[in-house]
Design brief:
By secondary structure, this protein is an alpha+beta fold. The protein folds into 2 domains: 36-61 and 261-314, no CATH class; 67-250, Sortase (Sortase, Chain: A, Beta Barrel). Helix content is 34%, strand content 20%. It is built from 4 helices and 10 strands, in the order αββββαββββββαα. Strand 4 (120-126), helix 2 (130-133) and strand 5 (138-139) form a beta-alpha-beta unit. Helix 1 crosses helix 4 (289-314) and helix 3 runs antiparallel to helix 4 (289-314). The protein is elongated, with a radius of gyration of 30 Å. It starts with 32 loop residues before the first helix and ends in a 5-residue tail after the last helix.
Protein backbone atom coordinates (compact mmCIF):
# COMPACT_ATOMS: atom_id res chain seq x y z
CA UNK A 1 0.00 0.00 0.00
CA UNK A 2 1.34 3.48 -0.97
CA UNK A 3 1.20 6.25 1.60
CA UNK A 4 0.50 9.76 0.32
CA UNK A 5 1.51 12.73 2.46
CA UNK A 6 -1.33 15.06 3.22
CA UNK A 7 -1.10 18.57 1.77
CA UNK A 8 0.25 21.27 4.07
CA UNK A 9 -2.35 23.16 6.04
CA UNK A 10 -3.43 26.33 4.38
CA UNK A 11 -2.71 29.64 6.02
CA UNK A 12 -5.53 31.78 7.32
CA UNK A 13 -7.15 33.65 4.47
CA UNK A 14 -6.53 30.93 1.90
CA UNK A 15 -2.76 31.30 1.56
CA UNK A 16 -0.24 28.53 1.08
CA UNK A 17 1.65 28.83 4.35
CA UNK A 18 3.58 32.02 3.72
CA UNK A 19 2.18 35.34 4.86
CA UNK A 20 1.75 37.92 2.12
CA UNK A 21 4.65 40.38 1.98
CA UNK A 22 7.02 38.19 4.02
CA UNK A 23 8.44 36.10 1.19
CA UNK A 24 9.26 37.38 -2.25
CA UNK A 25 9.28 35.80 -5.67
CA UNK A 26 12.40 33.86 -6.48
CA UNK A 27 14.60 34.59 -9.39
CA UNK A 28 15.39 38.26 -8.80
CA UNK A 29 12.27 39.58 -7.01
CA UNK A 30 12.29 41.84 -3.99
CA UNK A 31 14.10 40.50 -0.96
CA UNK A 32 12.14 39.75 2.21
CA UNK A 33 11.57 42.79 4.44
CA UNK A 34 13.50 41.08 7.24
CA UNK A 35 16.55 40.91 4.97
CA UNK A 36 16.31 44.52 3.86
CA UNK A 37 16.81 45.89 7.40
CA UNK A 38 20.41 44.60 7.79
CA UNK A 39 21.28 46.07 4.39
CA UNK A 40 20.03 49.47 5.52
CA UNK A 41 22.11 49.21 8.62
CA UNK A 42 25.13 48.18 6.59
CA UNK A 43 24.72 51.19 4.32
CA UNK A 44 24.52 53.44 7.38
CA UNK A 45 27.58 51.78 8.90
CA UNK A 46 29.57 52.14 5.69
CA UNK A 47 28.52 55.79 5.43
CA UNK A 48 29.61 56.47 9.01
CA UNK A 49 32.90 54.68 8.37
CA UNK A 50 33.52 56.76 5.23
CA UNK A 51 32.84 60.03 7.04
CA UNK A 52 35.01 58.91 9.95
CA UNK A 53 37.88 58.14 7.61
CA UNK A 54 37.41 61.56 5.97
CA UNK A 55 37.59 63.23 9.40
CA UNK A 56 40.76 61.35 10.32
CA UNK A 57 42.25 62.22 6.94
CA UNK A 58 41.50 65.91 7.55
CA UNK A 59 43.21 65.80 10.94
CA UNK A 60 46.21 64.01 9.50
CA UNK A 61 46.38 66.46 6.61
CA UNK A 62 46.36 69.59 8.76
CA UNK A 63 48.76 68.23 11.39
CA UNK A 64 51.14 66.25 9.17
CA UNK A 65 50.67 66.22 5.40
CA UNK A 66 49.98 69.93 4.91
CA UNK A 67 53.78 70.21 5.15
CA UNK A 68 54.00 68.55 1.73
CA UNK A 69 51.83 71.30 0.24
CA UNK A 70 53.99 73.95 1.89
CA UNK A 71 57.25 72.39 0.64
CA UNK A 72 55.98 72.04 -2.93
CA UNK A 73 54.78 75.65 -3.19
CA UNK A 74 57.92 76.99 -1.52
CA UNK A 75 60.11 75.08 -3.99
CA UNK A 76 58.22 76.52 -6.95
CA UNK A 77 58.11 80.06 -5.55
CA UNK A 78 61.82 80.04 -4.70
CA UNK A 79 62.68 79.10 -8.28
CA UNK A 80 60.47 81.82 -9.75
CA UNK A 81 61.64 84.50 -7.30
CA UNK A 82 65.31 83.66 -7.88
CA UNK A 83 64.73 84.10 -11.62
CA UNK A 84 63.07 87.48 -11.00
CA UNK A 85 66.02 88.59 -8.86
CA UNK A 86 68.44 87.58 -11.61
CA UNK A 87 66.45 89.60 -14.15
CA UNK A 88 66.00 92.56 -11.75
CA UNK A 89 62.21 92.39 -12.08
CA UNK A 90 61.35 91.36 -8.51
CA UNK A 91 58.72 93.54 -6.76
CA UNK A 92 60.02 96.44 -4.69
CA UNK A 93 56.67 97.83 -3.60
CA UNK A 94 52.95 97.08 -3.37
CA UNK A 95 52.38 97.29 -7.14
CA UNK A 96 53.35 95.12 -10.08
CA UNK A 97 56.73 96.08 -11.63
CA UNK A 98 55.32 95.77 -15.16
CA UNK A 99 52.16 97.75 -14.37
CA UNK A 100 52.47 100.16 -11.40
CA UNK A 101 48.73 100.87 -11.55
CA UNK A 102 47.92 97.32 -10.44
CA UNK A 103 48.49 95.88 -6.97
CA UNK A 104 50.53 92.75 -6.53
CA UNK A 105 48.46 89.58 -6.77
CA UNK A 106 48.07 87.90 -3.35
CA UNK A 107 50.62 85.11 -3.11
CA UNK A 108 53.26 86.86 -5.23
CA UNK A 109 56.80 86.15 -3.91
CA UNK A 110 58.35 89.36 -2.54
CA UNK A 111 61.29 88.25 -0.35
CA UNK A 112 63.33 85.38 1.09
CA UNK A 113 63.58 85.27 4.89
CA UNK A 114 66.69 83.54 6.25
CA UNK A 115 67.06 82.97 10.01
CA UNK A 116 69.94 80.52 10.54
CA UNK A 117 69.43 80.24 14.33
CA UNK A 118 66.13 78.43 13.82
CA UNK A 119 66.89 76.83 10.46
CA UNK A 120 64.37 78.94 8.55
CA UNK A 121 64.76 79.76 4.87
CA UNK A 122 61.36 80.67 3.43
CA UNK A 123 59.92 82.63 0.54
CA UNK A 124 57.72 85.49 1.78
CA UNK A 125 54.52 86.08 -0.18
CA UNK A 126 52.37 89.16 -0.61
CA UNK A 127 49.29 89.09 1.61
CA UNK A 128 48.36 87.44 4.90
CA UNK A 129 45.03 85.71 4.26
CA UNK A 130 44.52 82.07 5.23
CA UNK A 131 44.99 80.95 1.64
CA UNK A 132 48.29 82.84 1.25
CA UNK A 133 49.70 81.64 4.58
CA UNK A 134 49.10 78.03 3.52
CA UNK A 135 51.92 78.59 1.02
CA UNK A 136 54.39 80.41 3.28
CA UNK A 137 54.95 83.50 5.45
CA UNK A 138 53.07 86.56 4.23
CA UNK A 139 53.88 90.26 4.08
CA UNK A 140 51.19 92.52 5.58
CA UNK A 141 50.12 94.61 2.58
CA UNK A 142 49.79 97.99 4.30
CA UNK A 143 53.41 97.97 5.51
CA UNK A 144 56.66 98.62 3.58
CA UNK A 145 58.64 95.70 2.24
CA UNK A 146 61.51 94.48 4.46
CA UNK A 147 64.70 96.49 4.02
CA UNK A 148 62.82 99.75 3.50
CA UNK A 149 62.29 102.71 5.82
CA UNK A 150 59.34 102.15 8.12
CA UNK A 151 57.84 99.26 10.07
CA UNK A 152 57.36 96.10 8.03
CA UNK A 153 55.45 93.07 9.25
CA UNK A 154 55.54 89.40 8.22
CA UNK A 155 53.01 86.86 9.50
CA UNK A 156 53.56 83.10 9.52
CA UNK A 157 51.88 79.94 10.75
CA UNK A 158 53.06 78.25 13.90
CA UNK A 159 51.93 74.63 13.37
CA UNK A 160 49.99 73.84 10.19
CA UNK A 161 51.41 73.97 6.65
CA UNK A 162 55.00 73.50 7.67
CA UNK A 163 54.78 75.80 10.70
CA UNK A 164 57.54 78.08 9.36
CA UNK A 165 57.34 80.41 12.40
CA UNK A 166 57.13 77.61 14.99
CA UNK A 167 60.46 78.58 16.58
CA UNK A 168 60.64 82.36 16.27
CA UNK A 169 59.82 82.61 19.98
CA UNK A 170 63.26 81.12 20.72
CA UNK A 171 65.11 84.01 19.07
CA UNK A 172 67.29 85.97 21.49
CA UNK A 173 68.14 89.68 21.53
CA UNK A 174 71.17 90.43 19.38
CA UNK A 175 70.76 87.56 16.92
CA UNK A 176 71.02 88.55 13.28
CA UNK A 177 69.04 87.38 10.25
CA UNK A 178 68.57 88.54 6.66
CA UNK A 179 65.77 89.27 4.22
CA UNK A 180 66.46 89.32 0.48
CA UNK A 181 64.22 91.48 -1.73
CA UNK A 182 64.40 93.07 -5.15
CA UNK A 183 66.45 95.90 -3.53
CA UNK A 184 69.15 93.65 -2.07
CA UNK A 185 69.92 91.89 1.21
CA UNK A 186 68.70 93.54 4.40
CA UNK A 187 70.22 92.60 7.77
CA UNK A 188 68.23 92.72 11.00
CA UNK A 189 69.15 92.44 14.67
CA UNK A 190 66.57 90.96 17.05
CA UNK A 191 65.43 93.29 19.83
CA UNK A 192 63.15 90.96 21.78
CA UNK A 193 59.92 88.97 21.71
CA UNK A 194 56.62 90.25 23.09
CA UNK A 195 53.02 89.28 23.72
CA UNK A 196 49.89 91.40 23.97
CA UNK A 197 50.33 93.95 26.75
CA UNK A 198 54.15 93.94 26.66
CA UNK A 199 55.86 97.29 25.92
CA UNK A 200 56.64 98.03 22.29
CA UNK A 201 60.28 99.00 21.63
CA UNK A 202 60.80 102.66 20.78
CA UNK A 203 60.99 103.48 17.09
CA UNK A 204 62.66 106.47 15.41
CA UNK A 205 61.54 107.96 12.10
CA UNK A 206 63.81 107.08 9.20
CA UNK A 207 64.64 103.74 10.78
CA UNK A 208 63.81 100.30 9.40
CA UNK A 209 62.09 97.72 11.57
CA UNK A 210 60.65 94.28 10.94
CA UNK A 211 58.01 92.51 13.04
CA UNK A 212 57.62 88.74 12.77
CA UNK A 213 54.26 87.52 14.08
CA UNK A 214 52.77 84.11 14.75
CA UNK A 215 50.32 82.41 17.11
CA UNK A 216 51.00 82.13 20.85
CA UNK A 217 49.73 79.37 23.13
CA UNK A 218 49.14 75.69 22.25
CA UNK A 219 50.04 74.78 18.68
CA UNK A 220 46.51 74.12 17.43
CA UNK A 221 44.64 76.28 19.96
CA UNK A 222 46.18 79.78 19.71
CA UNK A 223 45.49 82.16 22.57
CA UNK A 224 47.18 85.29 21.26
CA UNK A 225 49.90 86.69 19.02
CA UNK A 226 53.64 86.37 19.56
CA UNK A 227 55.75 89.08 17.95
CA UNK A 228 59.49 89.43 17.39
CA UNK A 229 60.84 92.96 16.89
CA UNK A 230 64.05 93.46 14.91
CA UNK A 231 65.86 96.63 13.83
CA UNK A 232 67.39 97.07 10.38
CA UNK A 233 71.19 97.37 10.71
CA UNK A 234 72.01 97.63 7.00
CA UNK A 235 71.37 100.73 4.91
CA UNK A 236 67.60 101.30 4.65
CA UNK A 237 66.05 101.59 1.19
CA UNK A 238 63.46 104.19 0.36
CA UNK A 239 59.93 102.86 0.25
CA UNK A 240 57.60 103.75 -2.63
CA UNK A 241 54.35 105.51 -1.87
CA UNK A 242 51.99 103.25 0.09
CA UNK A 243 48.81 102.71 -1.91
CA UNK A 244 47.26 100.19 0.50
CA UNK A 245 45.82 101.68 3.67
CA UNK A 246 45.00 99.89 6.95
CA UNK A 247 41.30 100.36 6.17
CA UNK A 248 41.75 98.19 3.07
CA UNK A 249 43.10 95.22 5.03
CA UNK A 250 40.35 92.61 5.31
CA UNK A 251 39.57 90.89 8.60
CA UNK A 252 41.04 87.60 7.38
CA UNK A 253 44.39 89.35 6.74
CA UNK A 254 44.78 90.53 10.32
CA UNK A 255 46.70 88.43 12.85
CA UNK A 256 44.53 85.44 13.91
CA UNK A 257 41.95 86.43 11.28
CA UNK A 258 39.78 83.95 9.40
CA UNK A 259 37.65 83.93 6.26
CA UNK A 260 33.99 83.91 7.31
CA UNK A 261 32.88 83.56 3.68
CA UNK A 262 34.38 80.07 3.61
CA UNK A 263 31.15 78.83 5.25
CA UNK A 264 29.30 78.89 1.91
CA UNK A 265 31.57 76.53 -0.07
CA UNK A 266 32.12 74.48 3.10
CA UNK A 267 28.39 73.73 3.45
CA UNK A 268 28.05 72.85 -0.23
CA UNK A 269 31.14 70.65 -0.28
CA UNK A 270 30.10 69.05 3.02
CA UNK A 271 26.75 68.09 1.54
CA UNK A 272 28.49 66.58 -1.49
CA UNK A 273 30.78 64.64 0.83
CA UNK A 274 27.82 63.19 2.76
CA UNK A 275 26.06 62.23 -0.48
CA UNK A 276 29.23 60.58 -1.77
CA UNK A 277 29.61 58.66 1.51
CA UNK A 278 26.01 57.39 1.30
CA UNK A 279 26.57 56.42 -2.33
CA UNK A 280 29.66 54.39 -1.37
CA UNK A 281 27.63 52.64 1.32
CA UNK A 282 24.81 51.81 -1.11
CA UNK A 283 27.16 50.66 -3.87
CA UNK A 284 29.02 48.41 -1.44
CA UNK A 285 25.80 46.38 -1.11
CA UNK A 286 25.13 46.30 -4.85
CA UNK A 287 28.59 45.84 -6.30
CA UNK A 288 30.61 44.58 -3.35
CA UNK A 289 32.69 46.41 -0.77
CA UNK A 290 36.00 46.49 -2.62
CA UNK A 291 34.47 47.51 -5.94
CA UNK A 292 32.61 50.38 -4.24
CA UNK A 293 35.74 51.57 -2.44
CA UNK A 294 37.79 51.51 -5.66
CA UNK A 295 35.26 53.84 -7.29
CA UNK A 296 34.41 55.89 -4.20
CA UNK A 297 37.78 56.56 -2.57
CA UNK A 298 39.00 59.04 -5.25
CA UNK A 299 35.71 60.96 -5.11
CA UNK A 300 35.50 60.97 -1.31
CA UNK A 301 39.21 61.83 -1.09
CA UNK A 302 38.87 64.83 -3.42
CA UNK A 303 35.83 66.13 -1.57
CA UNK A 304 37.54 65.49 1.76
CA UNK A 305 40.54 67.61 0.82
CA UNK A 306 38.26 70.34 -0.56
CA UNK A 307 36.33 70.40 2.71
CA UNK A 308 39.61 70.45 4.66
CA UNK A 309 40.81 73.48 2.71
CA UNK A 310 37.62 75.40 3.54
CA UNK A 311 37.75 74.38 7.21
CA UNK A 312 41.33 75.64 7.47
CA UNK A 313 40.25 79.03 6.10
CA UNK A 314 37.73 79.26 8.96
CA UNK A 315 40.52 78.70 11.49
CA UNK A 316 42.96 81.41 12.69
CA UNK A 317 45.43 82.20 9.92
CA UNK A 318 48.46 81.94 12.24
CA UNK A 319 47.64 78.43 13.50
Amino acid sequence: MTLVAPPPPSAPGGGTGASHGTLSRTGGGLKPWAERVPITRQVAATTALTLGVALLAFTAYVMLFSRLHFDRVQYEDYASFRAELAQAIAPTGPTQPADPKKLLTPGTPVAVLHIPEIGLNAVVLEGTSDAVLEDGPGHLRDTPLPGQVGISEILGRRAAYGGPFARIGSLSPGEIFTVTTGQGVARYRVLDTRLAGDPVPAYSNGQGRLILATAAGPAFAPSGVLRVDANLISTPQQAPAMVVTPAEIAADEEALGSDSLAWVPLVLLGMCLVVAAVAVGWLSQRWGRWQAWIVGVPVVGYLGFAVADQVVQLLPNLM
